Amino acid sequence: CYRGQETVARVDNLGHPPRRLVFLHLDGTPEHLPAHGAEVTTADGRVVGHVTSAARHYELGPVALALVKRTTPVDDQLLADGVPAAQEVVVPPETGANRRPTFRAGR
Fold first, then answer.
1. What is the pTM of this model?
2. For 1-107, where are the E strands, in sequence order?
């Protein structure tokens, strides 16, 4: 066994990772930024991911990166730690879905 073997096997069997990276444009009304690890939820309260980082961009205002479930629709409005957020797709949901790795027989 090696570190990450389980993850590699899961991606190999599914054909793609179970989560995807999204860029979140945060609503600027709340004064706080979501903390690292804060929950990302849908409007109905379903948890779909977690914030990885957040900052105030000099042109875009408050922004964040998050890992969300691959099945989260790209047009869903999300809440990052209670802050309304619009998604910008970084990794499309269908990425890797048709790729099947090929392995060479023993060497």
1. 0.74
2. 19-26, 39-42, 47-57, 61-69, 78-80, 83-89
Q: What is the pLDDT along the chain (107 residues), one digit of tens a residue?
A: 778 787 777 766 666 677 889 999 999 777 889 999 999 999 899 999 999 999 999 999 999 999 999 889 989 999 999 999 999 988 777 766 555 556 555 55
Q: Are 40 and 49 in contact (CB under 8 A)?
A: yes
CB 99 within 8 Å of CB 14? no
Name the residue with tokens 């179970």. Answer: 18
- The 10 Å CB-count burial string (b at 16+, else e) for 56-78 is eeeeeebbbebbbebebeeeeeb
In contact, 42 and 78? CB cutoff 8 Å: yes
Q: Are strands 78-80 and 61-69 parallel, antiparallel or unpaired?
A: unpaired
Identity of the residue numbered 55: A
